[in-house]
Each structure stands twice: as structure tokens, then as C-alpha cells.
Amino acid sequence: MGRVQDKVVIVTGAASGVGKEDALLLAREGARVVLTDIDEEAGRELARKIGDGALFLRQDISQEADWQQVFAVAQERFGGVDVLVNNAAILAYGTIEDTSLELWQKIQRVNAESYFLGCKYAVAAMKQRPAGSIINMSSMAGIGGVSSFCAYSASKAAVAGLTRSVAAHCRAQLYKIRCNSIHPDGIATPMVSKLHADKNAPSAYIREKDPKQLQARFALPSDIANLVLFLASDESRFMNGAELRIDNGYLMWAD
Fold first, then answer.
1. Closest by alpha carbon to 49, among 81, 21, 82?
2. Residue pLDDT, tens place only, 177-218
3. Smallest Cα–Cα separation from 162: which of 105, 122, 128, 113?
4. Of 17, 134, 203, 251, which residue is least crowded by CB atoms under 10 Å?
5. 156-184 per-position pLDDT tens digit
6. SS3 letters across the chain
């Protein structure tokens, strides 16, 4: 217990799925958590469940003003920020042939541009602290590519590139700020469950996600949260710019 004792952590997309599990685990390990999401009801309920060490703020991560407010409130309430978990994202079907420019831009704005804003304000805040850790949720789709998720795959590849750039900058400036990315394959979350229930899902996607593969490949949110906790803690103090696959060997899957 106490692996992130008294660290102040911002978790985006904290109302459900991986973000919720991250927040619960970090709080159990001693962190004070700032939970953000557009789902106010679920976010406030989670903050109440965690207790005095939690604060919920409504945040549209695509809006710079919202990022400024989140960091300002965290500074006022808890005295600063030590860890940012860039977790919130959106997912939608679309190959290169049927993805509209509007959908492409929407996904890049939420999944890539928002992470840029988070990193930008996190670096500014963490320079004032003894050390800092930025944890960016990318995806195996950003490494291997998924034909049915063209825009999503591109956005997550952008997150990986952003992570390396931030890590290199912090090292060059001698900031004690680390930036690492996590690359899961499928995770059993409400967002993914909705896709499986979608009658318009591409046939190739359905074939790939047969019951055997669901059991073999899909992680639980807690599997991801355990890695987030490690990266948030001082145990990972020499890890910077790493791309951490958590995919049960997906890239080596051959049959």
C-alpha cells in the first residue's frame, strides 16, 4: 500500500472503464485524484465513493480552456499535479474508404490534439514539482494498424509519437518528468462492448472477435490499471519514452 502516497493525479475519462479502475486503484494506493469526464453523474458518484481525496471536474478534453481550468483547480485544491493519466478517447468504425473528413477530424481532435494539450499543461505544472509522470493511453492499433479503425489507429500512432517527443524534451531540459505510453489490445470496457453489439460492425471485425479470441485477447480494466499504477509510482523512475505493450502477445498471434 502507499505506492503513490500523497501524489496528485489527474485521470481523464474517469467515469467508467479503464479510467475508473485507474482512479480507484491510485486512490487505494494513497493518491489524491482529480477525476475528469463529460459524464457528470457517474464522475461525481465515483468521487463520492473514493472520498475526501477525490475531486470531480467536468472536462471536454478537446477544449484548451477546460485543460487550463483542471490544472488551475488541482493547484488550488491539492497544491499541484504529479501525474497525468491521459486516458479519455473515442472509438468509431471507418476504413480509409468510408471514413469522412468530419469523422477523421473529430477523432484526431479528441484522441490526439487533446493529449497534446494535456502534455503541454502537465509539463508546465510538473516543472514546479520534485518529479512528474505523464501516462498516455495509446493502443496496439497505433502500432499494427486496424483496417476497420483508420482514424482511430492514426490518432493512437500520433499519441505514441507525441509521447516520445515529450520524453525527449524533458530529458534534454533536465526536467524530472517522464512520459510513457501504454498500448493495449482489446479491453473489456463499455466503449468496446457497444461496438460488439453494433449490428453494423464490419464482418471482418466480427470474425476476428470470435469467442475464443475474446477470451484470449481482451484485458480487464484492472490489468491496465496495474500498469498505470507502476508508471505513476517512483518504481518506474528510470522509464521515459517507453511504449509498453499490454496485449497478450497479439503481434505474435498467428492462427
1. 21
2. 999 999 998 666 555 545 554 545 554 444 455 555 555 556
3. 113
4. 203
5. 999 999 999 999 999 999 999 999 999 99
6. CCCCCCCEEEEECCCCHHHHHHHHHHHHCCCEEEEEECCHHHHHHHHHHHCCCEEEEECCCCCHHHHHHHHHHHHHHHCCCCEEEECCCCCCCECCCCCCHHHHHHHHHHHHHHHHHHHHHHHHHHCCCCCEEEEEECCCHHHHCCCCEHHHHHHHHHHHHHHHHHHHHHHHCCCCEEEEEEEECCECCHHHHHHHCCCCCCHHHHHHCCHHHHHHHCECHHHHHHHHHHHHCHHHCCCCCCEEEECCCHHHCCC
Tally the residues of the chain: 255
> For the domain bounded by 8-246, which CATH number is listed?
3.40.50.720
CB neighbour list of residue 31: distance below 8 Å, 6 or more residues apart: 4, 5, 6, 7, 8, 9, 53, 83, 232
In this structure, which amino acid lies at residue 127?
Answer: K
Residue positions annotated with a catalytic role: 152
Hey, what's the cell of 101? 473528413
Which residues, in sequence order, are bridge partners of residue 174?
A: none
Report residue 20 as a C-alpha cell: 475508473
Contact 27, 53 (CB under 8 A): yes
- Asked if 17 and 189 count as a contact pair (C-beta separation under 8 A), the reply is yes
Q: What angle do CA 6, 8, 10 make, to 5 degrees?
A: 150
* The three three-digit cell numbers of residue 131, written as one number: 518529479
- Side-chain-facing half-sphere of 125: CA atoms under 13 Å: 29
pTM of the prediction? 0.89
C-alpha cell belonging to residue 24: 480507484
Q: What angle do CA 164, 167, 173 make, to 5 degrees?
A: 140
